[in-house]
Amino acid sequence: MKDNLSILTVNLSVMLVTSMFLISCDHSSRELKSKDLHERSGVQNTFFKLKNQDTVKVAYLGGSITAQSGWRVYSLKWFRENYPETTVVEINAAIGGTGSDFGVYRLQDHVLQYDSDLVFVEFAVNDASTNPETISQSMEGIIHQIWQQDPMIDICFIYTIKSDFIETYEKDSLPSSIATMEEIADYYQIPSINFGYKVLRRVNQGKLLFKGDEAAKDTIRVFSPDGVHPYPDSGHKIYEEVFIEAFNQMKTNSGNKIVPHKVPQPLTPDISTNTKMFSWTEIKNNRVLTPVIVGDDPEFKKFRNYFESVGVGEPGDSITIQFSGRSIGFYDLMGPGGGTVQLTLDGQPKKTFSRFDKYCTYWRISYKTVTGLRDTVHTAVFKVLDKSIDKKEILSERDNTMENEGEYVNRNWYLAKVLVDGDLIDNQE
Q1: Are the CB atoms for 71 and 37 separated by under 8 Å?
Q2: pLDDT tens for residues 226-273?
Q3: Are 208 and 222 spatial neighbours (Cβ–Cβ below 8 Å)?
Q4: Nearest-5° angle of CA 147, CA 153, CA 154?
Q5: Which of 62, 89, 258, 407 could link 57 by a cystine bridge, Cβ 3.0 to 4.6 Å?
Q6: Rounded CA gap, 376 and 373, in Å?
């Protein structure tokens, strides 16, 4: 009897330990998955519209990772395959090298004017070096502008990964940009999907190399060529897996009605809710700039989906802008022919902007803003300086050279739009 009792006791102990182990493993699994998706209020309105509307518009506001033919394309495919009776329209508002501090200015032009139903916001990587307060002002500004237009629009934050984030994740912490966005997402109950955790799990399991060239892909799956931009057929495929798992979960938990999102008081003072872009042609005395129609120019035609023309300022040219508000800036092109621009604000030299850097072997979209101004009337003067630039020396920082030195002779400014957190005043001749 004692032997049988002893055996029973041992068996119960083993069962208890085994059960505790399984519970622990299950909890760990759930915890890992919860890091991939923080569902919060989900995207219930989107799922209702996908089932009940003829057309649903999905906007992608982000940087170069979203601009790639990767998770954006794969997610659209998922929507269209799962809801074949609905026309899912893409609004591609992704611009490489841009963060939330520019996204909040271009939101109206690039997203809201198209009456979006769902807006993905992806700026974690490009905001990595941005001050948390600036991120908060911009991200909360994006949220408030979206829901002020239509509280039925769903928002979903997307977090991508780069090599600089790995050490922080391994310390069981979040990169500063994501930590800031998560605080905002919690406050507004916005769902967030973090693509990074599954990537790191694959790396730690020895199934994935985070960075490598095309040749390495023959022997092991490689996430990216540069530690930032995933390969479409490998890294972005992992992003796709996480996206599908997250959206299937949110779909399962989704209700069958439209629920307006509540817009609480902002967490951060002075959020950006009045940000706008104005074409350079709307600026008083813009005639000092030489117009270039981007669709007709072989160098600039790739930008024709963003603006019709740029105003080219040569050294000595200047424009004056009167505005009321808390910030001023510009949206321009940087490239081989770039120069230097000086901002004088309310009669005082404020800042000088170089429009040439070590990446300027090609033309790209760029922007600059000056924020934190008193909310009053200001006069801004932008002047193109007659300042020499050692372009060879600057390019050498990345081992770049001038293939055609003639392309680098100009020191001009290529202005597309003016950015204002406020309004232009007296902007007509």
Answers
A1: no
A2: 999 999 999 999 999 999 999 999 999 998 899 999 999 999 989 999
A3: yes
A4: 110
A5: 89
A6: 8
